[in-house]
Amino acid sequence: MGFFILLVAVLVLYLLFTLWKRGCAGGGQACYILDYECFKPSDDRVISTEFSGEIMWRNKNLGLNEYKFLLKAIINSGIGEQTYGPRNFLMGREETPTLPDTISEMDEFFNDSIGKLLARSGVSPQEIDVLVVNVSMLSTAPSLASRIINHYKMREDVKAFNLTGMGCSASLISVDVVRNIFKTTNNVFALVVTAESLSPNWYSGNDRSMILANCLFRSGGCAMLLTNKSPLKKKAMLKLKCLVRTHHGARDESYGCCMQKDDAHGRLGFYLGKDLPKAATRSLVDNLRDLAPKILPVRELLRFMVARAVRRLTLTSSKKGSGGGTAGGGGGKAVIDGIGTNLNLDEYDLEPARMTLHRFGNTSACSLWYELAYMEAKKRLKKGGRILMVSFGAGFKCNSCLWQVVRDLDFDLEDGNNTVWKDCIDNYPVKSHVNPYLKKYGWLSNEDPHTFKLPDHL
Fold it and tell me: Where is the Beta-ketoacyl-[acyl-carrier-protein] synthase III C-terminal domain (predicted)?
């Protein structure tokens, strides 16, 4: 009895401290998203099942076991038939990329999406005060931010930030950069540009922990226009309520589970280790522990704390089970499933993530915005609604933020933004996630390693 009285007292004190902390942390400038534009590459960059097979067969370092592994990974990935890749892949030069390949991949996105966003919003490039660009796997000189400034002829006093190496959680880091600038500077327009460069990052070896990345990542990008101008708040789409960043880079296990490195033969690739699921879970738990007091009502927070305490008491004498194995299709369907289980989300909640993965693949840091565009296209975003974004990245990082919908966002297929879903939204959600790979390449599973030979037509 005494223990429970003490527990209640601690909870009350904790809640009072949280409320006091919220009050002290108030103030500062608001952060609004006025508009955003997701990039849809041209149709000649579509990666179909047939072409995926062709590019896989071109890797002469793969054997039957690696082909079987890739077959299983692709089938379980949740990726569909209409994703996009860089042009050098489609031209058969994935192993010999050039600098113009990488630059042109970025220019296609910059020139299309930024131009559409600024034109639709009525904001000229010269009105942009802050530019934040994040492309993790490409660093050029001059920077990509400078390239955008030159193309759009922005002002000489624009504050430019170019982020690399931040992984799939980079877009929320970019938003955080803008948020902190907004706290000290009034009446600002900020442009956030998020994408990933695939052209120079194809892995040509046979290490299973590195060839998996070839199956999952696809081309994409998003440009966002943010502001703290009070007169524009009624025109805004979303208002940032809270943003929390968690970094486990000090843990060797977390730091090394997801990184760019050479394989045993000196071939550069992106390594996804067996400790990745454990690192992701741990970072998510720590992130939500910091986020919960900032976004949950006091009643829900109290329920959460009591349930957590009771669960700990129940499990005190129980033997802890071992962690699960490496999730199949890391960064794909299995990750969505894991988040859904841990956050107790139903299929309706998970639908935007699943359908975005099916239509566009894993587009790294910009995946969040394709999912947001899906919700808008399905007319889910109503005034007062709240959107929780959670992203993971190498390092290992977990970043999250909460947005509030400022006004009803009634997507217009003809005049609305985010035309990436315009031609296909009525076909979603898809009824089946079965990848055609199984039908086309399922014969691999029955092959004998000693007599295996690729058919002549491949």
Answer: 351-404
User: Could you identify the residue written with the tokens 């996804």?
Assistant: 272
Residues 6+ positions from 164 with CB-CB distance below 8 Å: 134, 135, 136, 137, 138, 139
SS3 324: coil
Q: Are 99 and 141 in contact (CB under 8 A)?
A: no
State the CB neighbour count (10 A cutoff) for residue 251.
Answer: 15
Under 8 Å between Cβ of 195 and 39: yes
Name the nearest CA neighbour of 287 among 402, 369, 198, 193. Answer: 402
What does the alpha-carbon distance between residue 325 and residue 328 come to, in Å, rounded to a whole number? 9
Residue 39, domain CATH: 3.40.47.10
State the amino acid at position 261 in one-letter form.
Answer: K
User: Would you say residue 17 lies in a domain?
Assistant: no
List, in sequence order, every residue forming a beta bridge with 161; answer none if it has no partner.
Answer: 132
The dihedrals phi and psi of 17, each to the nearest 5 degrees, come to -65, -40
Q: Which residues contact 430 (CB under 8 A, 6 or more apart)?
A: 80, 355, 358
Residue 311 belongs to some domain of the structure: no
Q: Contact at 8 Å (CB) between 76 and 331?
A: no
The number of folded domains in the chain is 1
CA 411/CA 435 separation, integer angstroms: 29
Question: ∠ CA 225-230-235 to the nearest 5 degrees?
Answer: 55
Distance CA 58, CA 60 (A): 6
Mean pLDDT in consecutive groups of 10 residues from the start of the chain, 458 residues: 60 60 52 96 90 86 88 83 94 95 97 96 97 96 97 98 94 97 95 96 93 91 97 95 96 94 94 89 91 77 58 43 32 74 85 94 94 93 93 93 92 62 91 73 79 71
Report which residue type is found at 87: R
